[in-house]
Amino acid sequence: MASSLLLPSALLALFFLLLSASTCSARAEAAAAVLTLDADNFSEVVSAHHFIVVNFYGPWLYWSKKLAPEYEKAAAILRNHDPPIVLAKIDAISNKDLRDKYRVVGYPTVKLFRNGGSTVEDYIGARDAESIVRYLKKQVTPASTEIQSAEDTATITNDNGKGKVNDGTLESYHKPDPIPEVGDQHVKKYAPDNRHEVISNSAKKVLKMRQRMKWAFQILVATIAELFTKDG
């Protein structure tokens, strides 16, 4: 009886051991997809990329810890994107000069560096892996091309098959989707593949205001947590 009970227990223990090892391996692989930057390699790495995303984080702060696994998952997905989208991180507390240079006042702060770092902007999307991936893919979507001659139309492709080119003339096209209304916010999506969105200035201001309020709350919580940690 004892031996018959021991075997299932051993198999169950082995199962959980393998499951744990698999989970740790997946997490390690995702973490490896994120480049680690510091004062010594920051400029070199950023200047070498046309587009790179950098997470300025505080190692022991709650919101930085919460973002880390989602950021790593996104990095593991985006490195297989065409072209690859590179995600990096830097300890902003230890690298004060870079933190001040890029005006980082809260942790984590994610910034988008374009053209070797000549252009810098804040990431203002949600902070789960799926949202990060979706947001960053939109950032590297090729801009629409202006058609200036009949020859230019020869390069047009329409994935949904509703437009065709015949003798340099675009015979048909995919009509834009209707403009949805959400309060006073109007979003218009253009053909052929609905990648390009135009959002009214009022909508952009609302989005930025909400994000800033969220950041301010996060900074307040992190500051309180830091005070309690030091007191402890």
How does the major sheet shape up? 5 strands, mixed
Query: N-to-C terminal Cα separation, in Å?
Result: 52 Å
**Order of strands side by side in the largest beta sheet?**
1-3-2-4-5
Count of DSSP E strands?
Answer: 10
Mean pLDDT: 74
Strand content: 15-25%
What proportion of the residues is helical, as a percent range?
40-55%
Flag low-confidence runs. Answer: 15-26, 157-177, 181-200
Q: What Rg do the Cα atoms give?
A: 24 Å
Structural class of the secondary structure composition?
Answer: alpha+beta
How do the SSEs run, as a string of H and E?
A: HEHEHEHEEHEEEEEH
**Global outline:** globular
Count, helices: 6
Description:
The chain is α+β, with helices and mostly antiparallel strands and 232 residues long. 44% of the residues lie in helices and 18% in strands. The protein has six helices and ten strands. The chain has helices at residues 2-32, 42-47, 62-78, 96-101, 129-139, 201-231; strands spanning 34-37, 51-57, 86-91, 109-114, 119-122, 165-166, 169-170, 181-182, 185-189, 197-199. The strands form three sheets. Strands 1-3-2-4-5 form a five-stranded mixed sheet. Strands 8-9-10 form a three-stranded antiparallel sheet. A hairpin with a 2-residue loop joins β6 (165-166) and β7 (169-170). α1 (2-32) crosses α3 and α3 crosses α5 (129-139). It is globular and about 70 Å long. 18% of the residues are buried. One of its GO terms (molecular function) is protein disulfide isomerase activity. It catalyses: Catalyzes the rearrangement of -S-S- bonds in proteins. Residues 1-26 form the signal peptide. Residues 22-141 form the Thioredoxin domain. Pfam families: Thioredoxin.
